[in-house]
Amino acid sequence: MKTNILTAAAVSFLTMTAVAQKDEVKNAEDALDDGNYTEAKAQLKIAEPNLGELNDKWQENFYLYKGKAYAGGNPTAEDMKTAAMAFQKAVEMGNDEAAEGLAALKNNLIQSAISDQNKEDFASAADKLYTSYELSKKDTIYLYYAANNLVQAQDYDKATEYLEMLNKLDYDGSGKAYTAVNIETGERENLGSQQQMDLMIKTNQYKEPQVEKIPSKKGEIAALIARIYISQKNYEKAIAAMDKAKATNPDDLGLLQAEANMYYQMGEKDKAREILEEVASKDPSDPETFNNIGIMYAEIDDTKKAVEYYEKALEVDSEFNEARVNLIAAKLAKERALIDEMNNLGMSKKDNARYDELDAERKELYKEVLPYLEKAMEVDPDNKDIVKTAMNLYTNLGEQEKAEELKSKL
């Protein structure tokens, strides 16, 4: 009989505990209805230690209310993480309302991370983006963005950890981005899918839908890992990381470009240039590759080769003004030697004759360069440096009317 009395007492105690837990969960619901998130959190904290005493339905409600409580008001990054985990638990138990709350919270996490990035609070942005990834492991793009923000925050150890995780996942990142302009903010946003983009356009909150091709990010990831190791002067690890990436993706031209950049940063510029020339031979459709090779030749004063590659870049894309400006600079590099010799001449008849020769040579150089400058101004009419250079050349050639016209532009 004593055993029966004790058992009955224990059952009674458990029943009373469960009733108390239900009351606290109900109190949290009432507090949420009143917008009192602090009180809701307090009630839920009391209920949580004995949560196992409640049946599944009440536990489901507990996690739903916890998600709402921590997502409400002005949540911190830690609050958002707590809310997300609670919503996730409720979703796993079959709660549809929690699924909606989780979707809204994920969107808030991303928007908040973007806001942090704009404020250059990269560590906080990374934390929120990683939480977004944890909520849905298939959304590896958020892990990639978290790693990038950690690089910006100079938290290289954690950034490398995330980047290596991406490598293990064989993350590629290529695909399509379904974007549209948010009418309220004027910003173009990635809406995730064709279906979602079409839906948001119909709400009249977005306009100008666009489907953009997203290239593979494997090269960028390898480049980031190498860049981190290079910043730490750990060149062996940088080379090993790049070799590993190339072994698994031998046809990825982005990796070759990243490798070239790595050797360039390490000071091995000849090797960097050789790799870029290999890239150019495999893909002659990228003007930037030709332009970068031209820059490398310009750095070793091989003007002829530099100009050759700038011209190749312009053959691919006649509007690629960066190559055109570099070509102008390479051609005008001859001017310095001409002017130095002119300034060092004396006043003898022979010196005066030589001066006239050099001056004529200089003017011919200007005439050779002017068509490139005129095209550069046509492509980028607001570039003041290009306009100033053209104005100076017109002045030296005695074409004062054209020089004055450009001066009025400035």
Automatic annotation (TrEMBL):
TPR repeat ranges, renumbered to this chain: 219-252, 287-320
Q: Which PROSITE patterns does the annotation name?
A: TPR (PS50005), TPR_REGION (PS50293)
* Record-linked SUPFAM superfamilies: HCP-like, TPR-like
Organism superkingdom:
Bacteria
Keywords attached to this Swiss-Prot or TrEMBL record, sorted alphabetically, are: Repeat, TPR repeat
PANTHER family documented for this protein: LIPOPOLYSACCHARIDE ASSEMBLY PROTEIN B, TPR REPEAT-CONTAINING PROTEIN PA4667
**Protein name, per record:** Tetratricopeptide repeat protein
